[in-house]
Amino acid sequence: MAEGSDEHSPRTRPAVLGDVAALAGVSAMTVSRVLNAPDRVRAETRARVLAAVRELDYWPNLAARQLVTGRSGVLGVVSIDTTLYGPASTLYCIEQTARLSGYSVSIASLGMLSRRSILEAVRRLRAQSVDGVVILAPHESAADGLRHLPPDLPVVAVDAGEDIPVPVVTVDQRAGAARATRHLLSLGHETVWHLGGPVDWLDANYRIDGWRGVLEAEGRQVHEPLRGDWSPRSGYELGRRLAADPSVTAVFVGNDQMALGMLRALREAGRRVPEEVSVVGFDDVPEAAYFSPPLTTVRQEFGEVGRHAFHLLLERMAGTAQSDRRLVEPELVVRESTGPAPRPGQGGTRDVRPGG
Amino acid sequence: MAEGSDEHSPRTRPAVLGDVAALAGVSAMTVSRVLNAPDRVRAETRARVLAAVRELDYWPNLAARQLVTGRSGVLGVVSIDTTLYGPASTLYCIEQTARLSGYSVSIASLGMLSRRSILEAVRRLRAQSVDGVVILAPHESAADGLRHLPPDLPVVAVDAGEDIPVPVVTVDQRAGAARATRHLLSLGHETVWHLGGPVDWLDANYRIDGWRGVLEAEGRQVHEPLRGDWSPRSGYELGRRLAADPSVTAVFVGNDQMALGMLRALREAGRRVPEEVSVVGFDDVPEAAYFSPPLTTVRQEFGEVGRHAFHLLLERMAGTAQSDRRLVEPELVVRESTGPAPRPGQGGTRDVRPGG
DNA sequence: TTCACGCCTGTTAGCGTTGTCGGCAAGGGG
DNA sequence: CCCCTTGCCGACAACGCTAACAGGCGTGAA
Predict the structure, then answer these.
(1) Contact of A301 with A85, CB cutoff 8 Å
(2) Is A89 touching B (CB cutoff 8 A)?
(3) With a 7 Å cutoff on the CB, does B29 touch strand C?
(4) A192, A184 Cβ separation under 8 angstroms
(5) Both ends of chain A: CA-CA distance in Å?
(6) Residues of B in contact with A292 (CB under 8 A)
(7) Helix axis angle, B43-56 relative to B17-24, nearest 10°?
(8) What is the mean pLDDT of residues B83-109?
(9) Which residue of A287, A300, A310 is the best one to mutate when testing the B interface, meaning the one whose CB has the most B CBs within 10 A?
(10) Among A93, A247, B202, B253, which residue has the fewest nearby CB atoms (within 10 Å)?
(11) Taking the CB of residue A40, how many other CB atoms lie within 10 A of it?
(12) Residue A3's pLDDT band (boundaries 50, 70, 90)?
């Protein structure tokens, strides 16, 4: 049973290719072939090698492999704050999909998306010899970074702007916002207010575009949108302003968290939802269905975004990519925070005139 | 200006050590020293080398370095679903802290934490030659995996159980639950009901321990805890059961999401919070302050957990670790969902008797 | 002057894997 | 019989870097 000289000692270091080769009585190259191109080795030899691989619990040293092939099997993801629901979900799906295809993923979460921080993160990932990078870049400020990436690195962006030299996957924010707005108009509201996200977030701006577009197309009055910071706090504070204005009967809020704050502000002001004011959110976080009342919102399929991003990156790495921008369709989920516009004189009317 | 034979051609492949050495007129070894032990090189030579490094935009090939040193500068994190608030926050903090110390992090998100899936994830990370691994293992089922890790790999667990052969960092769930329970008792409630998390989650069980411990110590009645699945949906459904029981005046809920569902169930049943029923959550998610009413809850400092985990892993990798279990103190955040127990006969009393 | 020593730098070898090429045996056609 | 092909396998070099050792030079003491 003893193959070499001494007894079967407690192996201290992991087995390497040479150990397997020795045990199987073949050359290192043959072992390598068994692992990488099995059909180029005779079945009998292959079986002997595989047995040795199992016996020694051999796993290839990826650093060594990478050094010679140039490929690492590692993908990089650079993202803003992965605590946020959107980035976290997208990251999760990218990782799951990548793993199924044999890739690992290495991450770099950034506090902010400046040109400097993005390029720095990409450089670090690159030093690890990642085969490709996905950048979750929902900020205006990321564009500058995206335009100065090393040209030979396969990159795909998620939620990036429009004049970007890399393929982009994104939810169609404009369409989602338009759907939300049309839904409110179809319920009889004369117009729709908007509580948007921060000015430097692309999603926020696209949602404003979509919302404004519908109102203008329908000839409705367009009130200047308020801008929050995605937090429930800002939704609450700006919500109090809107709650104090009796002409407000329908609000499209830029995300579900702000919508939560908004609902609270409306309740405190004594304005009932949806009887007096209708509210629509954006994202469909898991909690949204349990807000009071359950929130009508626009669902983003982050999972689909992640899968698309991965596959696009795969194409890019294979050099066969050409598709430039892939849009994922959002879906309006109608719950109980939206309802028919209140009839004039029944509360929430624009202004109270005698007669009219 | 031309250094070698031909003109300064558009460099297509990234510069390597040799290129820098040639440009600086030194040997490769000297360049390596400048990068790894700068004080062992004369200042003048060092300056020349650094100039060449900058000019060629040289960055070391980590795979090559790793192949010879055995260290990769990469840490692995294996976790359950990183979409959840706790794991996502912890991961984020680990990554931030690690980056500041020059480490990158590679992730493996698991759908479930079985022995098999954990060991598989660790094996994959190991093949990438990570220097150490943090395992976020809030499940009972993870223990088996944690007991069969390769002995020579530095590992730190977060939120793991108690008979584990690796150091563990965790929030003191028992203390947090005890604080929540005592808070409710101090408001005059006769006892406290509990809506707990899934049976296979350690956190859920520790919270039950803490809650039960206080009630028993105070000689209060201990009702069998209900078990949800962390989702707002389960909080809502089980909440309806509790809401229908007029003797319920105080509920400690296992996490904020379920508390959200619970609040909704109470509202639907016409039971006012906190006048008739007090509710405490756990986690302090960013939304909790904007629930209706704002939620009293137990704050977990995931950031601190992440930092501790990283530093413990660092010690472990240096071979100087001995500390076995590090507890992070949670903090009770009192908001508006808790209030004095209703006086008998004022609604919410146990049962209505004439006289009494 | 000579030797010892410290400082700085270069030479050699090797980390574990895969690409390339070449060799050997078996088989088929001339 | 030879020659050429085909299938299978092994030797060698290379990927880019660093550990270990060796050597040149200047300085100070014997």
Answers:
(1) no
(2) yes
(3) yes
(4) yes
(5) 103
(6) 263-264, 267, 292
(7) 120
(8) 93
(9) A287
(10) A247
(11) 10
(12) very low
Residue with tokens 């349990």: A290
Residues A35-89 have pLDDT tens digits of 999 999 999 999 999 999 999 999 999 999 999 999 999 999 999 989 988 999 9
Q: How confident is the model at residue B356 (pLDDT cuts 50, 70, 90)?
A: very low
Cα separations (Å) of A211 from A171, A232, A352, B109? 15, 21, 28, 37
Q: Which residue of A has its CA nearest to B60?
A: A127
Q: 277-336 in B: which are within 8 Å (CB) of A?
A: 286-287, 289-292
d(C-alpha A272, C-alpha A215), whole Å = 24
Contact between chains at A60 and B127 (C-beta distance less than 8 A)? yes
Q: What is the pLDDT of residues B179-225, one digit of tens each?
A: 999 999 999 999 999 999 999 999 999 999 999 999 999 999 999 99
Instruction: State yes or no: pLDDT of A344 exceeds 80.
Output: no
Share of chain B above pLDDT 70, in %: 92
Does the structure show a pLDDT above 50 at A5? no
Can you give the distance from the CA of residue B1 to the C1' of nucleotide C11 in angstroms? 29
Which among A85, A99, A233 has CB closest to B290?
Answer: A233
> How many residues comprise chain B?
356
Residue of B nearest to A123 (CA): B59
Which nucleotide has its C1' atom closest to residue A43's CA? D8
